[in-house]
Amino acid sequence: MHLIVKGTIHCLAKKTQVIPEIKAEAIGIDGRVIESWRIKPTRVTLKPGKATRFQSVILSPEETVTEINLSFAEKPHATEE
Fold this sequence. Notes:
The protein is an all-beta fold. Helices cover 0% and strands 54% of the residues.
């Protein structure tokens, strides 16, 4: 069995945006997180009005997955030198 997660990111902003990694969580029947991982989008930046796709596959999830939660990962803070 394979769990395939795919989608599209659309840039609705008025200027080019940096696209962070996507944080994914597979939720089981009992509501707990079975697996969590990061998905790298196919582009690093996205211009206004443009879109890019992402996709990830998990081979043989440990349990039945009933829900997938997706969110953008927080960008690392810039360090001052």
